[in-house]
Amino acid sequence: MDDQVPDSVLAQNIQSDASAAELFNKYSARVYYLALRQLRSSADAEDVRAETFLRVVRAVQNRQVRSPDALGSFVLGTARNVILELLRAPHRLKHDHEVPDLPSSPQDSGAVDEDVVRAIEAVIRRLKPRERDFLRLHYYEDLGKEEIARRIGVDAERVRLIKHRSLKSFREIYQRLTKSASTNVDTNVDTKRG
After folding, report:
1. Which domains does the chain have, with CATH numbers?
2. CA-CA distance, 115 to 106, in Å (whole number)?
3. N or C, where is the chain less crowded by C-beta within 10 Å?
């Protein structure tokens, strides 16, 4: 995400189709996953994503965004509002299909690799609560370091250390789990041949 256009530039150039498309590409997956997690319906998540970006583009064009540098927070805040509106709607229909907590990317047309999903869920369950909270706040809710510090009750300067430790723990646990899983698969294949 570091190689993408800064939010302030996107906000200034939102009248162009390219900037609107870049804004969508930058935050689309996060909005979709946020809605999917709350609503458990891919159809509703798609609706939330569409409504969110319509509102965001309209707000930016009308200069209603106070801080263009924090456009990501504005996008996710708008998405949360759209989700709440949908949850409160009396006519909301229950969809027949349930979706997993960690679906494949909306850009992927292939099936979800269930082993990867289970491994990631297992890693998240094994993380310390603070590490879990940090990863959710930073990657899922896209909050800045000051807000993360406030929410987890630490100084803003400690957030960088918590990020480093959280990512290191995630990688180590994931590698142990996937190595263990591949060893189990190899053992099962060897016993079937013998």
Report:
1. 7-88 (1.10.1740.10), 114-193 (1.10.10.10)
2. 18
3. C
